[in-house]
Amino acid sequence: MTDDILKKIKQLPPLPESAMQIEAVYQDPNSSFNDMVKILEKDPLLTADILKAANSPLYGFSREINAISQAVGLFGMGTVRGFALASIVKKSFTLDLSPYGIDNDMFSALSKKQHGLMTSWCMRKENKLLGVLSPAAFLVEIGKVLIAQQIISENKQDAFRDALAELGDVEAAERKILGVDTPEVSATVFKHWRFEEGLVDVIANCQSPDKAEPEDKRPAQILHVVRTCVPINGAITDASIDAAKVLLTKYDLDMESFDKAIENAR
Description:
The chain has 16 helices and no strands. By secondary structure, the protein is mostly helical.
């Protein structure tokens, strides 16, 4: 981790009280569905963001979700936690993803598509992992915001684009130009904000799941598959699906449920 990026992370504002309350409810084993609903209903703007996200066609619901209680009931506390944290965290950053050749709308669409694929896939077979995977899928790419800021401040846009063209791999290009990559920076951000260790570990090791703690290895594998299937431009292609399926076989993950999720995501 470079000193400049660490400095940027340490200068990030603290998360708002709403985020801390959501985390407290989610982490409390004695909390209930209604406790989460009550916290979310206190923030009308956040509620509106969650309902907008929940009604995306990526999730395949045939009827409109028009109440936060309905969203929590359909998706579960873990996934709605992901919707809420994604909305809150992204408002903490000034976005300029131009070094990656994408704009803010494309960046937002990327995380939504990754999350949509992951949720549709895991709700069938890995529902118990959604508490970690939902925020991880929404937030894993946030490190790109700080990396882009550093590339721009060091005037390395051309060098980064050349590295992307040469290596054909975003994280490899990041490491070549700055010595860090997106998962490392993202994990450091959430460690700074004191998110739970499991979430930080899954994000940090999503490209190398064997390095994750044993209990975090499977969610890290799933996140690796999703990021491979939905690359930075957000386009799911036959080639990206094939690459994801190589990882599915390697990690012994369920192919049938993945194929069904792909039908909704494309």
